[in-house]
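Entry for the shared binder. Reason: the reviewer on the internal report wants the predicted structure included alongside the sequence.
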Amino acid sequence: MTATARTVSIFMTAAAVSALSTAFAQEPVRDEIVVTAQHKAERIQDVPISIAAVSGDELEELSITSPVDVLSLIPNVTAQLPTSGTGFPIFNIRGVTLLDFTDTNEASVATYVDGVYLGSPAIQNGQLFDIDRVEVLKGPQGTLWGRNSTGGLIQFLTRARRMSWKATSWRATASTIITRSEGAFPARSATACARLAGFVNGRDGWQKNTFPGGSRISGDIDTNVGARLTMEFDLADNLLFTASGHYGNYRGETEQRGFFGKGDPIDGSICSIERILASECIDYSTGHSDPNGDPARVAIDLPAAPVTNENYGAWGRFDWSLGDNITVTSITSADTVSKYQVLDADTSPAPQFELAFTVDHDQFSQELRVAGGGAKFDWLVGGYYYNDHRFFTVGFPQLGGYGSFADQDIETYAFLVRRLMR
C-alpha cells in the first residue's frame, strides 16, 4: 500500500461516528472515525494514506442512493454512468479511470462490498442500500487489497455490524418521476442477530417515441428491487461468524440518445453547427432528421429497448481471536449476474443498427489472513484466490443475432506478508 500521500479528507458527522463498528466486532469508539483501510480497525487520523469516508447516516440525510452521487462528495473522486442509468458506474480517482465501457472489463478503481471484490461492472448496480459507510482509498492499493486497484478502491460497508442494529424502520422518498422505498428489519438474541433490508424503486418514463406505434420509453427503470439478509453468530467467546446473501432485479428500458443529422437536405454538404442544433439537417444514409431537437421526444424503430439485470450472491466470514492481539479472518464469497440490453444505435426510425448485449458472470473468491501486533509494529500475513467466468455477446437483431462474443476464464492467486504502518 502506498504511504506517500497523507492528506485525509473527512466527510462524516459526529453523530454518525457512534454507529460505526469494526470488522472484528469490537465496541465502537465514540467521537472518532473508525475505518478498516489496512484490514484492521483504526482511527482515520492514524491511517498513513489518503482516505475519505462517508457515513450511511449522511447518505440518508442527503437522500443519496447512487454511487455517482456518493462520490460527488469526495475531492479528486468522480463517477459517471456513460450509458445512462442502465449502464454500470465508471469511477475516477485522481484521473485514473476506465475508458472502455464493455461489461467484461475490470476497472482500474476496484469496487468492494463488505470486503468482497466485485469483478464485473454489471454486478455493481443495485447494492447501494442500508449502507453503514463508504470508504475511498486513493492511489494503488494492490499490496493489501489485490485486484486491479491502480487508481484506488471504493468499499461499501453495509449495516451488518453489532452496533448498527437499529429499530425496525421503513422510509419512502418521491419526486416527479422517481419513487423509492427502503427498509430494514433487525432481530437479535443473546448469541445471534439478523438484519433484513431491502428497497423498491420505480420510475415513470420521460421519453416519448414519436415513431408511428411508438410508446413511452421508461427512462431506464420500470422496477428495481433489492434485498439483503445478514446474520451474525457467536460460535464461541472468541469466534464470530457472519453470513450475508443479497438479491437484485433491475428491469426497464434503455434511455435513447438524441439524434442530429449533419447533411444538408438539398445539396448534401455538411451543415454548420448552428443548423445541426436547429434540426435542419439529415442523416446521409437514412434521410432522417430530428423534427424538434427535444431529447424527451425521440424517433426509433424499436417498439421497446429492454434492459434487465439480475444479480445474486452470498458471502461468509469468520473472525477468530487467538489472544496476544492475533486475529484470523476468512472470507468466502460467490456472486452471479445476468444482464440483457437492447438499444437502437442509429437513433432513427430506420432499422439499421440495433444492438443486443448479454452478460453472464460468475465469480468465486476466498481470502484468508492472519493479523497481529506488537509493541513496535503490526503485521499481516494472507492469501487470496479469485476465479470468474464471463460470457459476453453483442449481436445485431436485424441480422438474425449475428455478432461477436467473448468467453473469458480468469484465475488469480495472491500471497502477502506485510508490516503494517502506524
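Summary line for the report: The two ends are 13 Å apart (CA to CA).
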